[in-house]
From TrEMBL:
It comes from the Eukaryota. Keywords: Oxidoreductase. It comes from Bombyx mandarina. Required for the assembly of the mitochondrial membrane respiratory chain NADH dehydrogenase (Complex I). Involved in mid-late stages of complex I assembly. One of its GO terms (molecular function) is oxidoreductase activity. GO terms for cellular component: mitochondrion. GO terms for biological process: mitochondrial respiratory chain complex I assembly. The keyword Oxidoreductase applies. This is FAD-dependent oxidoreductase domain-containing protein 1. InterPro entries: FAD-dep_OxRdtase, FAD/NAD-bd_sf. Residues 51-431 form the FAD dependent oxidoreductase domain. It holds the Pfam family DAO.
Length: 462
């Protein structure tokens, strides 16, 4: 009897000790379930599984996390892996957000129209405390004789798709903006609504904050590889039977140099200019067949100048100016000063351009020609901003990879990434949840165009 009692006491003590150990290590399934239900687990643990993993927590990745959680709620787990929680580069180029309707590709026009709608109703989406400093300035596109017909066609396209605008003769331009030199201008096109400037950095922070509130988990880490699983029962054209490999886990390194892996159902690649290298971990660009084609996205430098010393009052009604030479300008604050830059050609690599020479021979010469009152203007400061650029055709790539159908790509959108992020995030969410585009059909922006050699050239990518 005594032995039996001691045995039961020993077992009870062991059980209590074991339970306590499991409770401490968070391995007991009942404790884990209780912590999930009550969200009372204060100790951070890296998840081993998720429904969707987003690589890159920039503005497109954060927007996607927001839309996924808004639509699916707790029914879909979302993990965002971002290597730089300070977002140093993002802060610099997102502050100068612009919203324009002047596009030659309908996809870009529709995305901008939705962005305008989103910004007008932003507090319904991201909360009452957000302020993106949206300023509806309008925009003015100037065309020389060589581009006047193209501008007329663009104007008709905009009107056809619900973006009102007016064509202006050189005399009409001078009447509205007498400080613009129209000697070599044949035609101008003025947008009359849903165009202006905003603070893209505040928009990005709003997406991050709201997506976290809705349950998205952000991890500060750098992706170092994918684990692939051979699936012998999958047949795909151009792939040897039994040789198909599916990506099923992403591996990442934390700031503490600890490596973890997370298994996923779907992966969204929104890592900007790093996307091409990360795609190689899935053999995109290094494999056979469809995997021979790389993701043609790389970092490109754009110079933005802050100018002071304009001799003419330009007025609060001054629009964003997109010049026929590639020059772009926008009013800085409430004064008569400008922010400006120069749109590079598709085959120009600004990474190789001498900054000082570029300033004197390209930017300032075009500026003083178009706005003579700026002949004494001084460059107060300049920033070298870096964007992800699609070297194939300068248009972003969005959609599933043709081989890895659980790898979704959104990269290479360059300067348009900021203003189009609300619509791009929503589009990716539709592909994940609905398996199709429901609002804006962005099929033509898919990776497939690289395989079929069908470039999407946007002539007004300011």
């Amino acid at each position: 009897m005594i032995v039996s009692s001691l045995f039961r006491a020993s077992r009870q003590s062991t059980a209590i000790s074991t339970f306590a150990r499991y409770n401490h290590e968070q391995k007991n399934p009942m404790i884990k379930t209780w912590n999930i239900m009550t969200k009372s687990n204060t100790r951070f643990s890296y998840p081993e599984n998720t429904d969707i993993v987003i690589i890159g927590g920039g503005i497109i990745g954060a927007a996607t996390a927001y839309w996924l959680k808004r639509r699916a709620g707790d029914g879909l787990s979302v993990v965002v892996i971002e290597k730089d929680f300070s977002y140093k580069q993002a802060q610099r180029h997102l502050q100068h957000g612009t919203l324009s309707q002047h596009f030659t590709l309908p996809e870009n026009l529709f995305l901008s129209q939705f962005s305008a709608f989103f910004l007008r109703n932003i507090r319904e989406h991201l909360g009452e405390d957000i302020n993106v400093e949206y300023c509806p300035t309008g925009s003015l596109v100037l065309a020389s004789n060589d581009y006047a017909q193209k501008l007329e066609e663009t104007s008709s396209l905009l009107k056809e798709h619900g973006s009102p605008n007016e064509l202006l003769s050189p005399k009409e331009i001078n009447k509205k903006f007498p400080w613009i030199n129209t000697a070599d201008i044949k035609l101008g096109c003025m947008g009359v609504e849903s165009e202006g400037t905003f603070n893209g950095w505040e928009l990005h922070k709003g997406f991050v904050k709201k997506s976290k509130e809705l349950g998205a988990l952000y991890i500060n880490a750098e992706v170092v590889g994918f684990d692939l699983e051979q699936q012998r029962d999958v047949l795909m054209e151009g792939v040897t039977p039994g040789a198909f490999e599916r990506i099923m886990r992403v591996r990442y390194m934390t700031e503490e140099n600890e490596e973890y892996g997370i298994k996923f159902a779907g992966c969204i690649l929104t890592a900007g200019s790093d996307s091409s290298e990360i795609a190689k971990f899935a053999k995109v660009g290094t494999g056979d067949g469809m995997l021979m084609v790389p993701l043609p996205v790389e970092k490109r430098k754009h110079e933005v100048y802050s100018l002071e010393g304009n001799n003419t009052e330009i007025g609060l009604n001054t629009p964003m100016i997109m010049d026929t030479t590639g020059l772009w300008l926008q009013r800085k604050g409430l004064g008569k000063d400008f922010l400006g830059g120069y749109l590079p050609s598709l085959d120009q690599n600004d990474n190789l351009v001498d900054t000082e020479q570029y300033l004197k021979t390209t930017f300032l010469s075009s500026l003083m020609h178009r706005i003579p009152s700026c002949n004494n203007a001084q460059v107060q400061s300049h920033s070298s901003l870096y964007y992800d650029c699609t070297t194939y055709d300068n248009s972003g790539i969005l959609g599933p990879h043709p081989y890895h159908n659980n790898l979704y790509i959104a990269a290479g959108f360059g300067q348009l990434g900021c203003q189009h992020a609300p619509g791009l995030g929503r589009a990716l969410t539709e592909l994940i949840i609905d398996s199709q585009f429901n609002t804006i059909d962005l099929t033509r922006l898919g990776f497939d165009r690289l395989l079929t050699d069908q470039p999407m050239i946007e002539c007004n990518a300011y």
